[in-house]
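Quick one, tokens below:
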């Protein structure tokens, strides 16, 4: 019931964005423009270089006054999009144009090389993909070390791998892909968890990846899982329907 009530409360804000004079991002071959995306309590607004941040503040302030809700202004972040020159000027002057009102100092302007989290994905300009994955890799290693001290069986280790490696990486991989270097690091952590520091494991990982009926353990194969995710992206992209991304 609370989700439905939230939908009723947030729809006026979406309608205000749709009916506003904000230019947003034009969509090639479509008469509509991209102005805002709302997901649960996260709102992403797209501004062209001719739009005004002040207009966005006016829309959100009116909605807050009517709904008695409050935006987390201290969590507001702006990612400059455009040429390197435009991004550098925006971060320096905090103005979309030379005549526009500066973006408030309380708003974080994301610089090149810096990544911020948006709905579980880490995005930004000139971001090192491996850097945004490092906290997850470190967490997986720490948790696997904790589980190893409990001396689980091979089947227990399989379950742990599914929870730690599979559960912690699947959404991020679907959202923005997993670099090959990260997959290699996680696979190395998996191998160490299964067999310790042995240079000659008694059973090869390729065998453990196989189904139980083939003498394996049906252990999570990260490379195969990641390839399957890529194939599902391709399937969605090639689907000639209204749901095509």
């Amino acid at each position: 019931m609370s989700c439905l009530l939230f939908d009723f409360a947030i729809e006026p804000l979406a309608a205000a964005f749709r009916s506003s004079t904000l230019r947003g991002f034009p969509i090639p071959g479509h008469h509509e423009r991209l102005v805002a995306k709302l997901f649960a309590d996260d709102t992403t607004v797209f501004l062209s270089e001719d739009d005004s941040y002040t207009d966005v503040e006016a829309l959100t302030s009116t909605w807050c006054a009517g709904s008695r809700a409050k935006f987390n202004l201290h969590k507001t972040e702006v990612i400059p999009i455009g040429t390197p020159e435009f991004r550098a000027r925006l971060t320096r002057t905090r103005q979309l144009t030379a005549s526009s009102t500066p973006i408030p100092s309380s708003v974080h302007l994301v610089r090149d090389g810096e990544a911020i989290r948006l709905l579980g994905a880490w995005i930004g300009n000139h971001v090192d993909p491996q850097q945004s994955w490092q906290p997850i890799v470190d967490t997986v290693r720490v948790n696997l070390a904790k589980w190893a001290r409990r001396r689980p069986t091979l089947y227990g280790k399989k379950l742990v791998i599914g929870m730690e490696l599979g559960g912690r990486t699947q959404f991020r991989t679907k959202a923005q892909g997993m670099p090959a270097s990260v997959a290699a690091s996680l696979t190395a952590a998996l191998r160490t968890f299964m067999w310790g520091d042995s240079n000659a494991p008694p059973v090869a990982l390729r065998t453990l990846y196989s189904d139980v009926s083939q003498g394996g353990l049906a252990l999570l194969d990260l490379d195969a899982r990641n390839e399957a995710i890529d194939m599902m992206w391709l399937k969605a992209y090639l689907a000639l329907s209204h749901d095509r991304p």
